[in-house]
Design brief:
9 helices, 0% strand, mainly alpha, 79% helix
């Protein structure tokens, strides 16, 4: 009789442990894996945005120095253009759509504009250059208005890109659809302090 009670106790403890693992441990493990996957995918996507920005910005500078090269901006940009991270993000929609609404919208807009540089039809080479220049500056505008995460962009950027962002961000414009609230005004004060630090110690 005592042996039967002992086995029952062991069985109940084993079942309770298994149930606890199934109900609590596994969901937490899955959540952590999903969080890490989201973090890695987001970082890869930001690296890709910086890569595409660099490929496009170099073509803008090159075409300004040599106007006869304006016609080939799209073709040359395409050789350095990447969208693997973006395509992977689109395939895993549950992760991609977990990004902030503003971040998601502007990343998608950037890639559409990158594609237009490559495949768009323009009335003149000057218009083609202006479009490429606008799309390159769009990355800076997204950073200025916090549509992209500035800390993450800087963490995946090479030295020249960091230098370029530090130079261009202070003069870029804020875009206000409605008057900025208290939190936005505080963030902009932080921006001014950061820009002063850049000018004093980083430029």
């Amino acid at each position: 009789m005592t042996d039967q009670i002992g086995w029952k106790t062991i069985l109940i403890a084993s079942l309770t442990s298994s149930l606890f693992t199934a109900l609590l441990t596994e969901p937490i493990k899955t959540w952590i894996q999903r969080l890490l996957k989201r973090r890695e995918l987001r970082r890869a996507l930001y690296w890709e945005v910086v890569n595409n920005f660099g490929a496009l910005q170099s073509q803008v500078w090159y075409s300004k120095d040599k106007p006869e090269m304006q016609e080939g901006i799209g073709y040359r940009f395409e050789t350095g253009y990447k969208r693997l991270g973006y395509d992977l993000a689109l395939r895993d929609a549950s992760i991609f759509y977990s990004f902030g609404h503003s971040e998601l919208y502007y990343i998608d807009t950037l890639y559409r504009d990158f594609e237009r540089v490559i495949h768009g039809k323009f009335e003149s080479n000057e218009q083609r250059l202006r479009n490429a220049e606008f799309v390159a500056s769009e990355v800076v505008t997204c950073l200025k208005n916090r549509h992209l995460n500035k800390r993450l962009i800087f963490s995946v950027s090479p030295g020249w890109a960091k230098k370029h962002f530090r130079k261009e961000l202070p003069s870029a414009s804020y875009i206000d659809i409605v008057p900025p609230g208290l939190s936005a005004r505080l963030r902009r004060r932080y921006d001014r302090v950061q820009y002063w630090i850049w000018r004093t110690f980083c430029m």
